[in-house]
Amino acid sequence: MGRTSDAKEKILSAAQSLIELRGYSALGVAEICKAAGVPKGSFYYFFESKEALALAVIDEHWAGQKRDWTGILNSEAGPLDRLRQLFEVTEAGQRAGQQSCGTVSGCLFGNLTLEMSNQTEAIRTRLQEIFDAQVEMVDSVITEALERDEVTVTDTREAARSVVAQLEGQVLFAKLYNNTLRLSPLWANCLALLGARAPQEALAGS
Amino acid sequence: MGRTSDAKEKILSAAQSLIELRGYSALGVAEICKAAGVPKGSFYYFFESKEALALAVIDEHWAGQKRDWTGILNSEAGPLDRLRQLFEVTEAGQRAGQQSCGTVSGCLFGNLTLEMSNQTEAIRTRLQEIFDAQVEMVDSVITEALERDEVTVTDTREAARSVVAQLEGQVLFAKLYNNTLRLSPLWANCLALLGARAPQEALAGS
Predict the structure, then answer these.
(1) CATH number at A57-204
(2) Tell me, what's the pLDDT at A201?
(3) 20 to 30 Å CA-CA from B94: which of A11, A12, A115, B150?
């Protein structure tokens, strides 16, 4: 049992790295197993298809990211400070990825959305659920900021979608230009999108 | 000569449709030739590789989009009205695509950025040039708006990047949710990102 669950972890980990580097379509099961150092027979013992593996990679990646986002967005800091920390952590994560593999790999969910969402409904649905959850988490924080009269938006859901869209768009450019400095306007743009009342104060509050 | 250039056009057109539907990695040359209705030998007469075809598809798509963007962004309308028209035309284009093939296909350049930019430097460089050109075009219009005191941003290049990033992010969500209504906040968000002085007036100026 120890060895088999180890093989499953190895497959998941190799698949995540390969998907981040090269996307999903370009990968074959044989290549994933070779990178994982497990026999191909193991693959179909754990995953009924390459799509099932992709869903497992997505779920595992989201489990980690959700933990990070929850920790940041539910902290004791003021709501706008929590959003600023979210962008800082995102930027740090992309920088670490660039240092370890040479290129900014971007957002796994954004990458798979543009590559895969029109091809398999199971992946589309899972990615929708994840972005819905992200928007929901950001919405809660914006709602708090609104109650404290720190922002002027009225449709907090729409505002949360726009903040996440800005994040995805800037991460896309960080990947294209292989430059994490592309992420530095995120905080000022978030304040602008939220119609924040006192951006200088909020910035100084860090 | 007439027949051969016709074959080249057929390959380009089939490749563009297939890349929009399914991405680049998942496609094979044989499949592209079958969809184009041309013998596989023709392919290598016109294109030395699948990558060369992808570059030709990108160039052709950009030639058309650049014509559209230039027409809109150099028109006689006020600068902010021109930006609004750009979003309206983008939304209309995505709606037309959805009506003709059932799903929102998104932005070809954004799709290929997230799928391909870390895999081939030739494609990365071409996509960088295209997004640089888009940002440059939007920057010119923002600079005009700034001269007319209609916006309050000071770094017009950074602002242009953020407007294009917001566009890419919202188009990503329009694709994921197969819903072009996701593009409707683009105009209000653009005004927020630019610190527009009188959004109501600008909106009424349409």
Answers:
(1) 1.10.357.10
(2) 45
(3) B150
User: Which residues of chain B neighbour A185 with C-beta distances below 8 Å?
Assistant: 158, 161-162
**Rounded Cα–Cα distance for residues A161 and B152 (Å):** 24
What would be the CATH architecture of the domain defined by B54-204? Orthogonal Bundle (1.10)
CA distance A67 to A129: 16
Q: How far is CA B38 from CA B15, B20, B141, in A?
A: 12, 20, 44
* CB–CB contacts below 8 A, A to B: 134
Contact between B19 and B54 under an 8 Å Cβ cutoff? The reply is: yes
Per-residue pLDDT tens over the stretch B16-31: 999 988 888 888 999 9
> Does the distance separating the beta carbons of A115 and B115 come in below 8 Å?
yes
Q: Collect all residues of chain A within an 8 Å Cβ-Cβ radius of residue B97.
A: none
Report residue B73 as tokens. Answer: 């962004």
CB–CB of A20/A107 below 8 Å?
A: no
For residue B204, what are its two tokens? 């009424």
Chain A residues touching B22 at Cβ < 8 A? 25, 118-119
Alpha-carbon distance values, B111 to A34, A115, A176, B197 (Å): 28, 6, 11, 34
Quick one: B1-47 is in which CATH superfamily? Homeodomain-like (1.10.10.60)
Domain ranges of chain A: 1-47, 57-204
By CB neighbour count within 10 A (0-12 exposed, 13-18 middle, 19+ buried), where does B122 fall? middle
**ipTM for the assembly:** 0.91
- Do residue B23 and residue A106 have CB atoms under 8 angstroms apart? no
Q: How far is A143 from chain B (nearest CA, A)?
A: 18
Residue in B21, B172, B185 nearest the CB of A168: B172
Per-position pLDDT tens, chain A of length 206 = 445 568 999 999 999 999 988 888 888 999 999 999 999 888 999 999 999 999 999 999 999 999 999 999 999 999 999 999 999 999 999 999 999 888 998 999 999 998 888 888 999 999 999 999 999 999 999 999 999 999 999 999 999 999 999 999 999 999 999 999 999 999 999 999 999 975 444 444 43
Residue from the list B103, B168, B178 with its beta carbon closest to the beta carbon of A172? B168
Q: How many other C-beta atoms are found inside a 10 Å radius of the C-beta of residue A37? A: 10
Query: What ranges in B177-198 are assigned the alpha helix state H?
Result: 186-194
From B73, B24, B93, select the one nearest B52 (Cα to Cα): B24
